[in-house]
Amino acid sequence: MMALQIHPIPAFRDNYIWIIHNTEHAVVIDPGDASPVLDYLQSHKLELHAILITHHHSDHTGGNPTLIAKFNVPVYGPKQENIATVTHPVREGDKVHLATLPLILEVIDIPGHTHGHIAYFGSLPASSHGKNILFCGDTLFASGCGRVFEGTPQQMYRSLQKLADLPDDTLVYCTHEYTLGNINFARTVEPSNIDLQREELRAKQLRSENIPTLPTSIAREKSCNPFLRCHLPEINRIACLYAKKKLEQPVEVFATLREWKNNF
Ligand SMILES: [Zn+2]
Hints:
By secondary structure, the chain is of the alpha/beta class. It has helices spanning 34-43, 58-61, 64-71, 153-164, 179-189, 194-208, 218-224, 233-243, 250-262, and strands at 5-11, 15-21, 25-29, 47-52, 75-78, 88-90, 95-98, 103-109, 118-123, 132-135, 140-141, 144-145, 171-173, 216-217.
């Protein structure tokens, strides 16, 4: 059997709809728009077998009605959110069995960006190099994180910590091409971080060739992403300067960085 492949389907201005497929069957994650997905399926002669949703925002769910009308497939999505097109509500501890691919994905609750946001984590079969993979919607981005719309900074920080605790080699499939903007902010927070400087060169090169900067990895994010580095003294120091007060806990540093980025 052919190895599983994972590809980004660009949508809207800077979204990626990720598709996992072999030579016959496909699963899409967060199809905000149906037409680029239908184009991809048709040009690769693939049949859609399932849709996975991380959270309710329309740029992640808008393509569902059109795709379901054509393929009548199960739609997995967060149990804590009301999404009319979801047929299989899931939450932490649940496993999604995608038999036709074959792939099993575990559900992780990561509230903060929205109140019921979930991620899907799994390992590709040995025939596909056995890599760990994570689909985390709008929670963790390359060198950044999602805005805290419905949850609290505490929830978002805890959710990011859960993702940071996954194996270092986990490939992280984020849903937006925000990398260069995020690096611009990250370098302001941590100007002497050599890994981050290297990452900026890599991302600039890729974007100049119109190549996605994603997936990233948990290891790379732990070395470059300020929102996963709130426990470090140098990040605490600059966050205190911005907040003009002493910040005791990493979660306070996180809340400060998030507010700073909102106004950056
Ligand atoms: Zn969102």
